Amino acid sequence: MAKTRADVAPERLVALNAGTEAARNLVEFLAIDQLALLRAVRPGVPTAAIEAMAGEGVTRRMAATGALLLRDGGLAALPGLAAHPSDTVRGWAAYMVGAAALDLAARFAAIRPLADDANSGVREWAWLALRPAILAETGRAIDLLAPWAHAPSANLRRFASEATRPRGVWSAHLPLLRQAPERGEPILTPLRADPARYVQDSVANWINDAAKDRPDWARALCARWLRESPGAATARICKRGLRSI
Q: Is the pTM of this model over 0.90?
């Protein structure tokens, strides 16, 4: 049976709404009263616009709250929010970066700590928050994220792949990479035998996205990878990447 807000202990919900603790799972995250949390984190901030979004999806509300916090405190407030105990607040910080008027390189530099956050939810908000900027400058984003594919952290390597998926999840598609997925190879090729399954799954999903428009490219890429880098990791990526063909 699916769990609901009622399954979160009252004292636990008080801590989550006060922002003193991070959610331990999706049930706890969804149980949070984000308006109460916002008022606890930023007393006095005008919340009418967020209140009006009560019936909208969580992603839109997260983005709107990040934009509100940016207007309220500017980027000077970002470091404190990005290090906040609440994973929801750190997600808002990611959307502050997404809403800020920053050059793409500065935007990636600002999001990097959140892309490497210990909480998987924050890492998802990080790439989702930057997806519009990546859509606007896809070619440059690939150039800037290619070095991330060599990062020691699996979280950063996965961000480079996940943020540039041609179709993505809960996000706008990237027409450039749907039409010409080979443009993404500077990110993908260093990850073709990545030891982390977290990264492998993202790379496989990237290929699966592209295969829906360019099955020829997906087959050729995997054939080349399996010749150049035979091994269990590459085989797993390719098997999952070609699953829709």
A: yes
